[in-house]
């Protein structure tokens, strides 16, 4: 994707950012792992600036002090932010696109979710907010009002490729109903392929409102937490980045001080692994089939 004004469907992941105790350490890790380059969020320029489209549109949440834009071949792919506040944990947050953030927050409340941070206007750019589903997984909302709607590079090695929410088993029904009500998602069960380690896994694939079921229209999904392997894990969104060699990337992550939480695993959708960076932020990588 090279068009900075790509139109995202309602609820489609459109941006990702990681908040870390040390942004400089994070830049070194992701630069070495995914080939990203970085500039301060307020100063990097690319076709009018990644924070500023041709009409001044800013990317969500990217311009706080300590924030840096990650770019792949000069095209924005994510943001790295530093925060040293009390109770910080290193975490990736996925942002979902919406045509109306205020209306989306109303639907969040009505569907049993929670507003974590109310809608705030980003001058010249759009409206951002943070919400959580009934299981407790939080996500950002981004209502673009400028020239930059989200990812400028996606679905290529080093860029965003997939996102999913991981819910507790007992919350699956409430969580599925929540995303259907808030964003109008249609769902169908994933088929990981006969003989795959993930065969039979309960996973609901999301398609935009009104779209036919099928992988060509898939924009994300809902999986289940592996509480047997990670009993302390909390519900959360998992952000995937595309890589040319899943196993090789997992090996490199460990060499850089990160960890492998699971995988690499081969399924009908490709090879994926769940990793953590050297400050503990969890993310995933995928090599598509």
UniProtKB/TrEMBL annotation:
Protein name: VOC family protein
Gene3D superfamilies, alphabetized: 2,3-Dihydroxybiphenyl 1,2-Dioxygenase, domain 1 (3.10.180.10)
Organism for this UniProt entry: Streptomyces iconiensis
Domain of life: Bacteria
InterPro entries given in the database record: Anthracycline_SecMetBiosynth, Glyas_Bleomycin-R_OHBP_Dase, Glyoxalase_6, VOC_core
UniProt cross-references to PANTHER family, sorted A to Z: CONSERVED PROTEIN, GLYOXALASE-RELATED
Classification via Pfam families: Glyoxalase_6 (PF18029)
Listed SUPFAM superfamilies: Glyoxalase/Bleomycin resistance protein/Dihydroxybiphenyl dioxygenase
Residue span of region Disordered: 45-64
Domain VOC: 12-144
Record-linked CDD domains: SgaA_N_like
